[in-house]
Amino acid sequence: MNGQKFYKNFFSIYITLVLQNVITLSVNLADNLMLGSYSETALAGVAAVNQIQFVYQQIILALGDGLVIFCSQYWGKRRIDPMKKISSAAMRAALVAAVVLFAAVSIFPYEAVRIFTEDVPIIEEGVGYLGIVRFTYLFFAVTQILLASMRSVESVKIAFRLSVLTLLVNCGINYGLIFGHFGAPCMGAKGAAVGTLVARVLECVVLIWYVIKKDEKLRLRLKDYLSTDKVLVWDYIKIVVPILIVQGLWGVNTALQTVILGHMTAAAIAANSAAATLFLVVKSAAVGASSTASVLIGKTIGTGDMGLVKRYAKKLQCLFVLIGVVSGIFLFFIRIPVLGLYDLQPETKEMANAFLVILSVICVGMSYQMPTNNGIIRGGGSAMFVVKMDLISIWMLVIPLSFFLAFVVKASPAVVVCCLNSDQIFKCIPAFVKCNYGKWIHKLTRDA
């Protein structure tokens, strides 16, 4: 593949994945705007519950990422049968995770929300929201694993179309049920949960129909999920466990940010929710780059041309830097108009603005290190490198220092947010060294 074809292939996948992520996260942004206009307490309650979902989503996405890393290499060889067996293993693991979390939050709803705040009204709002949104877990698991299967064979347009469908359905129902428009009951946070549930069910049903009726590459059927291959399952487990650790750590780190800020000041939860939601939308550029790089690197390794893999890695790193600079500038300038849409207290809005200024800088480093680590290095089969780096950066440096600043030094929430996200900057150095001078290319496929 020459340079022109490489960029064409990259952007054909990348643009679709970014748009899909932006639209998906725009649902959360719309929810936040509606809930912020309805009640700051409702916004904070939903934000607390969303941290539980965020950790869960990282686990499901990790299972999907492991699937993509393996299946993209087999896709490079055009071997479909092993891909179906790996998809089956990923689906089973995702369904187990969904059932376990559903049971946990059903038995301990108050305890789950109380992790993030001691404010009783916020807890009550969160528990009401959680009582409905917990039913989305199973549908989310099925959808994400099927989408990962499609992504491994470079079929990404269905994900974009599903995200548009979700946006329209979720926002329409939320507008009616949160505020009581169109003759619907005024349900507040519970109304937002109903909108999310209906959207999740609908997107799952539509995707299953697409996989059965329209997909011509994998041709997945129910019988494929009833068969297993112990050798391939073990291969999948070996690569997915490090990814689960990394994604789980990142999810817990993000949740701990809410824990720390929630115990500093009540306004900090709402401010962090407003800032983090916008940040995640802009972050879609880096997430899309990471997913695209993983597919391209895995597929190229599958062809056996390792020299081409290294050349692609250098081209991708240049793209990541450019994406980071553009994303950081965009976030900095869009923060004021977006925050103006929220009906928040002046103190809360000022705090959210400070958070977004910090995140504008963080965005540049994150847009390089995350796709380099998770897209190129992990996509090349070196998942343990990313695990070791995150264990050191998050649990030995970022989290202990953030707790110290928050509860011993009594630093401002803005300083704590800066500390909590600082790893996105200093992880750029080991990522650059490993990608350009280390060994990270590993063949994961088995011969026929």
Task: Please tell me about this protein's structure.
By secondary structure, the chain is mainly α. It is 83% helix and 0% strand. α2 runs parallel beside α5 and α12 runs parallel beside α16. The protein is globular. The mean pLDDT is 87.
Topology diagram in text:
Blueprint: H1 3-38, H2 40-77, H3 80-107, H4 109-114, H5 120-133, H6 136-152, H7 157-179, H8 189-213, H9 230-262, H10 266-303, H11 306-339, H12 346-377, H13 383-407, H14 413-420, H15 423-426, H16 428-437
Helix pairs in contact: 1-2, 1-7, 1-10, 2-3, 2-5, 2-6, 2-9, 2-10, 3-6, 5-8, 6-8, 7-8, 9-13, 9-14, 10-11, 10-12, 11-12, 12-14, 12-16, 13-14
Note the main attributes of this structure.
globular, 83% helix, single chain, mainly alpha, 448 residues
In short:
This protein has 448 residues and is mainly alpha-helical. It contains 16 helices and no strands.
Tally of contiguous helical segments: 16
Taking Cα atoms only, what radius of gyration do you get, to the nearest Å?
21 Å
The biggest beta sheet is recorded as: none
**Poorly predicted ranges (pLDDT <50, ≥5 residues)?**
none
Terminal CA distance: 25 Å
Strand % is under 5%
Shape: globular
> What structural class do helix, strand and pairing data support?
mainly alpha
Helix content: over 70%
Please tell me the overall pLDDT: 87
Number of strands: 0
Give the H and E element order.
HHHHHHHHHHHHHHHH
